[in-house]
Specification:
Chain B: Pfam families: Nucleopor_Nup85. The complex is a heterodimer of chains A (370) and B (538). Chain A has 370 residues and is mainly β. Helix content of chain A is 0%, strand content 47%. Chain A has a four-stranded antiparallel sheet with strand order 1-30-29-28, with no helix packed on it. Chain A has a four-stranded antiparallel sheet with strand order 2-3-4-5, with no helix packed on it. In chain A, strands 6-7-8-9 form a four-stranded antiparallel sheet, with no helix packed on it. In chain A, a hairpin with a 4-residue loop joins strand 3 and strand 4. The chains are: A mainly beta (370), B mainly alpha (538).
């Protein structure tokens, strides 16, 4: 069930708080960051029953605000470091760790690195953060990659001039390797064990150098990543295989802001875009019954995928990389009811999906068909 | 709306009246309630355009909607142990009657009737009078005239009972009877329960002229207003607006609202709605657009100055056919661009509307900023987006200057991976090819490097200013033991050198020595090449 909650602030990022894998609980707490306000905020919301505060408003699952904290500058990225702490990066170039003690109603700043990203004479916005507790990696418009540790005061390492253009997103590939995407359509792999300031590998499309804005790694197969960029195309890459993406699919009619593989069910992928849509991609491997024959789905769209057949190495298991479209089915479903302003961010965990828009709304779906 | 009134804790009418002198400086809630009042009235009068008969029913709904305290009081009374003895009991009953909610009034009266078995007959009579009051049914088969006749009969019956002093022994029932007969003085005495002149108006019409025609409304409105306001209270802006609405003077309503309210939100949307209902004749204003568009433009321009609502304003401009686009073009360039992400969103808005001028200008701003901060890759990516060849040339110049100054390329990741963007500007193409030359040289593929170097000059890809550097780069190739440049190629090199020296001012000594050195190397290479080519392999 979709429910929209209007929160009077444009949402730039939403993230579920991680749930421990031992429990089979569905996530019930998420954090949001706002942008373009005079006073921006980081807020924590709950959709579960919090003891006494139950379904007073009558609308089941309406997100309730637990606590919020002022944030200096736009929240350009937000990640949970662990159950209690959230890292944000700001348009002022600052990196901040917020902490909310369990069962408390307040949030406080526990670490703040001001102007971590900067130009000589100006602020440089920091655009992306990735966490592998206690390590934190941030990237920014100044082309730097900075490594922090949550328990240390100073900066652990700075890779100066990692890129001559803006780095828009970063993700961990392995515990010692990160992948960044930039404004000239390149994916760069960085080995953090090396001391050198150059990437260990650079991949890019051989055609137009379209800026890339988001990247996500396949949860089980570390060599598969998906990216999205200015032209709204979804690209799936195999980083071992050099310079060509394996699949190129037309996804959106405007910039794609985020792409996420489902963490436990990676046949499902979610993308959101400036054009106001959120797409749920589902691929089924050939051995299973094609998903469109299964019942219980509403508002299906015919697949708009335009998969470029790539030289399929048969040993690759992942259905995402099948070049031959007759062997695997790809289904795309719109998840939001109607025309909205840009969907800036989404996160999916278990069966729950949360997204935030420029229309100052948060949508929560607790029954994502995965 | 009711919730809002409950939250505010007071009856909106009271609230507005009490502090009505400060109407323009109200808190947001009270302004919102007043706006809702005006909006609903406009809906009833202008949009539904109810004819006589239904008009009164709509007005009754309108009054009921905006006076929620009756239900509050009723709830209190009913929840008490003995409702009929509650101090607000009669207030509730009378309020119900004033609002024409006779069913509920009857239900309340039953409670009183059970307590006073002696007056049972009176209560029964009142009950029957209340139940017999005719209400016009717009969907029914009864015509207005038939209804009028029925109503008059009923009215006369009530009047008769009044004149017979049937209810004289119970002052409350007598009061109710007088209300039912539409006695003005009695109604005026209920000022506290009515609390506003428009409630008074509607009640008065209900019990004396239920078939009022829209065109006659304003007579009653004006007289009610005058009667209700005594010497102490003064006519408020809200009152004038409502009066203008009752007079069906749309323009006056819009004008007064514009004056009283401090932003264009309400007026713009109301005018837009009325325009869609084709109720506004086009009022040509000085700059050629009509009133709806004027107000929408004002509102949207105001929105644009807001730090985050500028995105909504874009849609408003889209719906102004004459001047919307021009206004948007002017405004969109003024949105402050603190981050690249915001710039991207603004650019998307411009590109969707084919505003190429604005795209170029925004990209140029971002590119200049990037250049100032030495982010050459970003600058290039912005100029690619704007398809701005001139700027791409500028960036390439920067790279080349850096190279001349430092001897190495900065930002190799960018130059090595230019891809099709190279074709955007000649200078950029040269940069890419030049870098390729260096790569080939580094890989010791001398023949190919030489060929590339030469083509850079002969195909005129390289700017003349750079030829000296290129020729200097050719030196090591010329000095190799193995002959790399063929005889023809050497002739071309010499030709290039001559072309260069003839066009340059030859004053600098450094240049002269270089030129000398080059001539020497070229001559030597030529010699070796001729010999090599002339030699027959044995």
């Amino acid at each position: 069930m979709e429910s929209a909650k209007y929160v009077s602030q444009k949402i730039s990022k939403t993230r579920w708080r991680p749930v421990s894998y031992s429990s089979l609980q569905q996530p019930d707490i998420f954090a949001t960051g706002s942008w373009d306000n005079e006073e921006n905020k980081v807020s924590v919301w709950s959709i579960g029953n919090l003891g006494s505060s139950g379904l007073e408003d009558g609308f089941e699952g309406d997100p309730q605000l637990i606590c919020e904290q002022k944030h200096d500058g736009d929240v350009l990225d937000l990640q949970f470091l662990d159950q209690e702490r959230v890292v944000t990066v700001s348009s002022t170039g600052a990196v901040t760790i917020f902490r909310q003690a369990p069962n408390s109603q307040t949030m406080s700043i526990c670490k703040h690195w001001a102007r971590a990203h900067r130009y000589p004479s100006d602020n440089a916005p920091s655009t992306g953060v990735a966490c592998n507790s206690p390590e934190i990696v941030t990237v920014g418009e100044d082309g730097r990659i900075i490594v922090f540790r949550a328990d240390q005061e100073g900066v652990v390492r700075v890779i100066e001039n990692a890129d001559s253009s803006t780095l828009h997103a970063v993700t961990y590939l392995r515990t010692t390797e990160v992948l960044t995407v930039n404004s000239i359509g390149q994916l760069k792999l960085w080995d953090l064990r090396q001391q050198s300031n150059s990437p260990s590998q650079i991949l890019s499309l051989s055609r137009d150098r379209v800026p890339l804005y988001c990247v996500d790694r396949h949860p089980n197969q570390q060599h598969i990543v998906a990216t999205g960029g200015q032209d709204g195309m979804l690209c799936v890459w195999d980083v071992r295989q050099g310079n060509m993406p394996f699949s190129l699919m037309e996804a959106h009619s405007a910039e794609m802001w985020e792409v996420h593989f489902h963490p436990t069910n990676p046949d499902h992928l979610f993308t959101c875009s400036e054009d106001g849509s959120l797409l749920h991609w589902e691929t089924s491997s050939p051995s299973e019954m094609p998903s469109f024959l299964q019942g219980g789905r509403n508002s299906n769209m015919t697949s708009r995928s335009a998969m470029a057949p790539a030289g399929g190495n048969q040993s690759i298991i992942s259905a995402w990389l099948h070049g031959d479209s007759s062997k695997s089915r790809l289904e795309t479903t719109h998840m939001l009811p109607s025309q909205t302003l840009s969907v800036n961010s989404l996160d999916v965990l278990g069966q729950c999906l949360v997204c935030g828009t420029d229309g100052e709304a948060i949508f929560v779906n607790r029954q994502v068909p995965v | 709306m009711e919730e809002l009134q409950q939250v505010a804790g007071v009856d909106v009418f009271d609230f507005i009246c009490l502090t009505s002198a400060f109407f323009p400086f109200f808190s947001q809630v009270s302004i919102l309630l007043a706006i809702e009042l005006i909006w609903n009235l406009c809906e009833v009068l202008f949009i539904d355009a109810a004819p006589a008969g239904s008009l009164l029913l709509h007005l009754l709904d309108w009054v009921r909607l905006h006076k929620a305290d009756v239900d509050e009081k009723a709830k209190d009374v009913l929840q008490s142990d003995s409702p009929a003895e509650h101090h607000n009991y009669w207030d509730v009953v009378v309020s119900y009657v004033l609002q024409g909610r006779l069913e509920e009034a009857r239900q309340m009266l039953v409670k009183q009737a059970t307590l006073q078995p002696a007056s049972r007959n009176m209560y029964k009579l009142m009950d029957s009078l209340l139940s017999k009051m005719p209400f016009y049914n717009p969907g029914g088969t009864q015509t207005l005239t038939e209804f009028d006749v029925k109503w008059r009969n009923w009215h006369e019956e009530v009047d008769r009972y009044l004149k017979d002093n049937t209810f004289a022994s119970n002052r409350h029932l007598e009061l109710i009877c007088k209300i039912l007969v539409g006695d003005e003085d009695t109604l005026l005495e209920q000022k506290e329960l009515l609390s506003t002149w428009y409630h008074f108006l509607v009640t008065r019409l209900l019990y004396s002229h239920p078939t009022v025609k829209p065109t006659d409304l304003h007579y009653y409105a004006q007289s009610c207003l005058t009667m209700f306001l005594d010497s102490r209270s003064v006519q408020e802006p809200l009152d004038s607006i409502l009066l203008a609405a009752f007079e069906f003077d749309i323009y006056l309503v819009i004008k007064d609202c514009s004056i009283v309210l401090n932003n264009w939100w309400f007026v713009a949307h109301l005018t837009d709605l009325l325009d869609h209902c084709k109720l506004l004749q086009s009022h040509n204003l000085n700059f050629g657009s009509n009133m709806r568009e004027f107000l929408l433009l004002e509102y949207a321009s105001g929105l644009f100055t807001h730090h985050s609502l500028w995105q909504c304003a874009v849609d408003y401009f889209d719906h102004c056919p004459e001047l919307g686009r021009a206004c948007l073009e002017l405004q969109i360039e003024r949105v402050p661009l603190d981050t690249e992400r915001k710039a991207l969103k603004v650019l998307r808005i411009c590109e969707e509307r084919q505003m190429s001028e604005q795209v170029r200008s925004i990209c140029k701003i971002m590119a200049m900023r990037a250049l100032r901060n030495n982010r050459l890759g970003s600058a290039l990516s912005w100029s690619i987006r704007a398809k701005d060849a001139a700027f791409a040339t500028l960036i390439s110049e920067r790279f080349l200057q850096d190279y001349c100054a430092k001897g190495t390329f900065s930002d190799l990741d960018l130059i090595d991976n230019l891809g099709p963007a190279m074709l955007l500007s000649d200078r950029l193409t040269f940069l890419g090819k030049y870098r390729e030359f260096h790569k080939l040289y580094g890989e010791k593929r001398f023949k190919e490097a030489a060929k590339l170097l030469l083509s850079l000059m002969t195909a005129k890809i390289a700017p003349q200013s750079f030829w000296m550097t290129l020729l200097t780069d050719a030196l090591p190739l010329l000095e190799q033991k193995e002959v790399i440049f063929s005889a023809d190629q050497t002739y071309e090199l010499m030709y290039c050198l001559e072309e260069l020296t003839s066009s340059l001012d030859t004053e600098e000594d450094v240049e002269q020595t270089k030129v000398e050195l080059l001539r020497l190397s070229l001559a030597r290479n030529l010699a070796m090449a001729i010999i090599k080519e002339g030699t027959v392999e044995t």
